[in-house]
Amino acid sequence: MKNDLDNIKNEFLKALEDVSDSLGLEDLRVEYLGRKGKLSQLMKQLPSMAEDVRREVGQLGNDVKKTLELAFTEVSSAMNASEDVARQQTDWIDVTQPGVRPPGGHLHLVTQAIDEVSTIFKRLGFVSTRHPEVDWDYYAFESLNMPKTHPARDEWETFFIGDGGTVQEGKKGKVVLTPHTSNGQVREMEKKQLPIRMININKTYRRQSDASHTPMFHQFEGLMIDKGVTITHLKGVFDYFVKEFFGPEREVRLRPFHFRFTEPSMELDITCGVCLGSGENEGMKCKICKEGWVELGGAGMVHPNVLRAGGLDPDVYSGFAFGWGVERTMVMKSDINIDDIRVLYRNDLRFLEQF
Ligand code: PHE
Questions:
Q1: What is the pLDDT of residues 146-202, one digit of tens each?
Q2: Are 172 and 137 in contact (CB under 8 A)?
Q3: Which of 267, 273, 282, 339 could crosslink 334 through cysteines, CB 3.0-4.6 Å?
Q4: Which residues pair with 222 in a beta bridge?
């Protein structure tokens, strides 16, 4: 037994000298010092020995075990240290290297335009508000000087909210998907906070779909009401917006028109971004505008009946309003060329990623 212990010790120490890596070292530890290793197997014979021999051999066994463990620890830590050095040379990262940028999204083209428009009007003191996009007929039409059966309503191809053919109706008339943001006019006046400088940007809906129309689109409605507001204020605000949004080279024009809720009413035109107002491009009639001007949207001085509907005295207060389509305004910017406006809402990333 003593010989066996000696043999195990010598074999182990010899093998330890030959071992070349930490995997081999671990194998060796299991083979000799493990729970089922050579040393434990040998020590299993102890209980069958005579009392005095058992004590002596047991003591010797423990000594051998300690010697082996010590030798193992020494070799193992030396080996770990040298393997660490080797690993540091092959396996390292340059923490100063730029990282891999994760793919980042961006706001939708129309949201970007809405931000830009609101920012420009904000500089003139206009406050962004949001009025309902599902509203009573009263705010969409009636309070805007368009009585129930007035034919002018036909110009707004309106969706009504209903259930199985029955249009929902309440205390302020039928319920509509707002066909324009002008429903915000009387609603804003009802807040009774004057003067008013509102910019109401919202979704609007009309029964139309072609290359230049989508059934859902956005409008921004400007409303300014105070004592002594005149058409020159409207012209000034329009001019400022156009130069900021489209560029200083663009000119503006007010063209007489008719709306029930403004008097006088007008359409606002700007010089075409392609021919810059000349109506000609490369010796031919400009294909975009044909005459030098393109239409931006409607405007006018708020009709006295509308002021009254909002609880204001037209002899004291006056104001102007305008309403333009966001998509239309955006597409008219000369650096954005979209020939079918419906692509804006097809969610095709190949299109959206370009902006
Ligand atoms: N609401 C009108 C439209 O949708 C535009 C407009 C707004 C005209 C305000 C005059 C004043 O066409």
A1: 999 998 888 999 999 988 778 888 889 999 999 999 999 999 999 999 999 999 999
A2: yes
A3: 273
A4: 199, 322
Q: What domain range includes position 279?
A: 109-352
pTM: 0.72
- Specify whether the CB–CB gap between 299 and 266 falls below 8 A: yes
> How many angstroms from the chain centroid is the CA of residue 81?
51
d(CA 220, CA 204): 10
Atom of ligand 1 nearest to the CA of 179: 4
The atom number, within ligand 1, closest to the CA of 265 reads: 10
User: Does residue 192 sit in the same domain as residue 292?
Assistant: yes
CA of 126 to the centre of ligand 1 (A): 18
Question: DSSP alpha helices (H): ranges in the chain?
Answer: 2-18, 22-33, 38-43, 51-90, 109-123, 137-140, 183-190, 231-246, 304-309, 326-331, 349-352
Q: Are residues 300 and 341 in the same domain?
A: yes
Pocket of ligand 1 (CB under 6 A): 180, 182, 259, 262, 297-300, 321-323
Quick one: tokens of 244?
């900021």
Residue 160: both structure tokens together:
């009504």
